[in-house]
Amino acid sequence: LLVAAAWRLLAPQVERCAWGSASEALARADAALVEHRADPGAATRPLDRAERWYREAARRRPAERLALQKIARILEVRGRRGEALDAFMAAAAVHPSLPWPWRDLARLYRRQGENAVAEIAWSRMLACAFPPDRELEDAAVLEALLGPGDPAETARRILPDRPGRVRAGARVLADMGDADKAEQLLREVMDRDAWGRFHLADFLLDQGRPAEALPLAADSESRCWPTTITAGAYLALERWDEALSAYDAAIGRCPPDDRALRIGLARARVGQGDPRGARALELLASERPEDGRTRRLAIEAWRRLGRPDRARDQLRALAEAGLASPAELKELGRAAIAAPPAPPGP
User: Does the global pTM surpass 0.85?
Assistant: First the structure.
């Protein structure tokens, strides 16, 4: 609303201003679009202005992907779907290695009921590299699989033959309640790619099947990720000595300061009865006070080691961070009433 108000003040001057850069034109278009969204029932003048500035941005920088995509969205809203399709196709042609133009093109085809063509565009999107963000990748895969028909069969048609992207498809299918078909997808790619078995091992570990994951994660080349999967499987099986050795090896093979590996190593030590593991979990939790999961691991660790006083301290820290559940707050209240004297020792 503030941007829209500012636009109303500046509009007379801006309309007379011959700005030179595409970025400046984009900024003006975005401001006009905000004004339109703040009051979509008003006259179409802000939307007209947004379209005009987006076109100007594309004129000044023909390879400007955002201008082309945003023009297309405005055109679709206005019912000019043929022109919108042309703009989306232009964006995809200019930047074929970026997933987002293909995504917008696929969405338009799906909305028009052209599902076969939409699948081609989804397939092109999923063949592109994504930013290193698992949630973003999974959300894109989920949207692609949510068309008509069986999601597992759609996955077979549109996922590229790369274990990493198939693994993302398997995560999505498992979250949709179809873990068996997710596993089948990964077993198929395992036969075609050497890394496929590590992705399958990772999936089985996530599914609570560490004994099956363990042999698949065996790696003669001592690489980081397979060693990490091996360590996680030993930890889940409560084979503490082997877990500790595997986490030590993974820390040596993986990039430094891997938080997940430090947490796994600490949990393996707790399993051995070593209080250094619980203290390490406390330290890791204090490094990120917003991380309730690690704080709860510290609570569990001190309880396992027979130190309810230290567990209570960690529960209090969880409450002070605003992360405790109602049940945990109730437990903390009971513990404060009945707390025994703390035993000696670190």
Answer: no
